[in-house]
Amino acid sequence: MDHDILKTLIPFNALTRHNLKLLAEEAKIQSLPAGTHLFAEGDEDKLSIYLLSGEVMLTASDRIRPRQLVGGTPSASYPLAQLKPRQFSGIAVTPVSILSIDSRLIDRMLSWDQVATYEINEFESSEDMEWMMRLLRSETFQKLPAVNTNELFRRFQPIRVKAGQIIVRQGDQGDYYYLIKTGRADVLRKIEKGHKVSVIAQIQAGEGFGEDALLTGAPRNATVVMAADGVLMRLKREDFNELLREPLVDWLELDEIRSLVKTGAVLLDVRLEDEFLHATIKGSVNFPLHLLRKKVPELDTNRHYIAFCQTGSRSGAAAFLLTQRGYKVSVLHGGLEGLRQHAH
User: Fold this and answer.
1) CB 99 within 8 A of CB 71
2) What mean pLDDT, rounded, does the chain reach?
3) Is 142's pLDDT higher than 80?
4) Which residues contact 14 (CB under 8 A, 6 or more apart)?
5) pLDDT in tens, 9-31
6) In angstroms, how far is the first alpha carbon of the chain from the final one?
7) Is the pLDDT of residue 300 over 80?
8) Is 117 left (phi over 0), alpha (psi -120 to 50) or beta?
9) CATH fold of 249-343
């Protein structure tokens, strides 16, 4: 899309050249006939809609006089009926051209732009920009403070990898967190009984791995092998803890969790099945950490989950993994050990 169009709109005009270029790739322009309903009063969509040409009528149930906007005028440099729920309905009076884009992405980019202390000059190829936008659209990065996002892009180290290359090995200590920029990988796990190795998950471009060992301090619980040539972005343990772990894990105390459960939150016991069968919190369901990637589709994105384990270590890892995939997850601080201490 032509960057000059965005430069005439507010707040795009406040962005740096690089970030304006990124948002231009996400903006969608449509030509619509007269009579088209663009949005309705009360809508809670996540879009910012701009009128580029033509005329739009804004009407509201509690206003006698409608408002008419014309593309190309100063008023049209702002998004239409931006407050949510929308305070107006919008109808095209003439054929119109509109630009739409995710409001959250605009705000995210503005925050990032205004805290950045450098410009990432090396990220100029279409591959780089696609990767960056994939991350900025992800649930993980939506939840991070903008300054953390800025630092992450600075500290990630790119590594070229080949199909068949082992990136992490089951049993090794964790040292890095990885994101797949391009390519894909298989997750293999060896079951102690019979030493059988099976593929338990596949990781695609834009997804991460290696967080389990960094969060729990335990050895790697699976082996990750590249299934295709590609590029990984690697983050040191210290940087991972500072910039990703702490902002994303929502630790709660027992009283807070009791209130959430009363309103429909689901308790997730992420310990092993044998541990779960021996003793657990009444009403909880068992989703062992090492099977979580495989079992994620069984969870409901509309529910709030409370993860717990013995001490809080494994449940912290589970919360991080699920938060990355768009689930609302909190963690019982101190785990079951904390409950016992609380009881005494």
Assistant:
1) no
2) 84
3) no
4) 110, 113
5) 998 887 777 778 778 888 899 99
6) 64
7) yes
8) alpha
9) Oxidized Rhodanese; domain 1 (3.40.250)
Query: What is the distance between the alpha carbons of residues 207 and 139, in angstroms, rounded to a whole number?
Result: 11
Backbone angles phi, psi at 325, to 5 degrees: -100, 10
Give 157-177 as a 3 state SS string. Answer: EEEEECCCCEEECCCCCCCEE
Total residue count of the chain as it appears in this document: 344
Angle between helices 335-343 and 254-262 (to 10 degrees): 110
d(CA 329, CA 112): 25
Pairing of strands 47-53, 251-252: unpaired
The residues, ordered by sequence, that sit 6+ positions from 150 with a Cβ below 8 Å of its Cβ are 112, 115, 116, 117
For residue 25, give the nearest of 3, 45, 41, 5 by alpha carbon.
3
Domain boundaries, the chain: 3-106, 123-245, 249-343
Let me know if the fold of 3-106 is the same as that of 123-245.
yes
Position 118 pLDDT exceeds 50:
no
User: Among 336, 342, 327, which residue's Cα sits nearest to residue 270?
Assistant: 336
**Mean of pLDDT values over 92-106:** 92
Count the neighbouring beta carbons within 10 Å of the beta carbon of residue 110.
17
- Are 126 and 74 in contact by the 8 Å Cβ rule? The answer is no
Tell me which residue has tokens 């050249």. 17
Mean pLDDT (whole number) for 178-194:
84
Q: Are strands 230-236 and 157-161 parallel, antiparallel or unpaired?
A: antiparallel
CATH number for the region 123-245 comes to: 2.60.120.10
Q: 246 in helix, strand or coil?
A: helix
User: pLDDT tens-digit profile of 242-252?
Assistant: 887 776 778 88
For the entire predicted model, the pTM comes to 0.55
pLDDT reading at 116 higher than 70: no
Q: Which fold has domain 3-106?
A: Jelly Rolls (2.60.120)
